[in-house]
Automatic annotation (TrEMBL):
Protein name per UniProt: ACO12 thioesterase
The organism of origin for this protein: Prunella fulvescens
Gene, per the UniProt record: Acot12_1
PROSITE patterns: START (PS50848)
GO cellular component term, pick one: cytoplasm
Domain annotation START: ranges: 18-166
Listed GO MF terms: lipid binding
Length: 197
């Protein structure tokens, strides 16, 4: 478990630090970036939020609050409190037209910054849990690497960056967005800002 938590945080830090991100969309307080490497598409949503970074961190690291701003989360329940900094959740998402509803078993790892210039981190990846085998009513999907980095901008504002390395499991939700108006990503980002503020 210690290795999984470490690699969860390390994978997100590595993804965030990659060169070659292309900006695809700029709104007032939201920017959307993409990064392509072979068959792997990653995206980053950067949000300017008028709350202190530690407040954004405590709200975003509690995934049971996620349904309040992310309509892709239909249910989300804690399966296991691994430690103060790690929890395993079972998430179900609403079915898209022509697709079975999906479910995910995810490890969420949170870290406070060790040094002032470092971000708060909330990293997410899929894990396998014997207690929750795939069920016939859901299509079990995988999150390779996703999560948030929260950088303090001032004592009352911060920059929240959401990252997701897209697998075919998440693709139906994003394909239409990334090729077209990236509307759903934008809407979710604006809901997230509204929720945090």
């Amino acid at each position: 478990q210690a290795y999984l938590s470490y690699s969860n945080i390390a994978a997100l830090t590595h993804l965030a630090g990659k060169p070659g991100w292309d900006i695809t969309k700029t709104l007032d307080n939201v920017k959307i970036w993409t990064h392509e490497e072979g068959a792997v598409l990653s995206f980053k949503v950067e949000m300017q939020v008028k709350v202190p970074s530690h407040v954004a961190f405590s709200l975003l690291s509690d995934f049971s609050l996620r349904q309040r701003w992310d309509r892709h989360f239909q249910t989300c329940k804690v399966l296991q409190d691994v430690s103060e900094e790690e929890k395993i959740y079972h998430v179900t998402s609403a079915p898209m037209t022509g697709h079975q509803p999906r479910d995910f078993v995810i490890l969420v790892s949170q870290r406070q910054p060790c040094r002032p210039q470092e971000p708060y981190t909330v990293a997410v990846r899929s894990v396998t849990l014997r207690a929750v085998p795939p069920s016939p009513e859901f299509c079990r999907s995988e999150i390779l690497c996703a999560g948030f980095q929260i950088h303090s901008s001032s004592s009352s504002s911060c920059t929240v960056c959401y990252f997701n390395q897209v697998t075919s499991g998440v693709m139906p939700y994003l394909a239409a967005n990334l090729t077209g108006s990236s509307k759903s990503i934008e809407d979710t980002a604006l809901e997230c800002i509204k929720f945090l503020e």
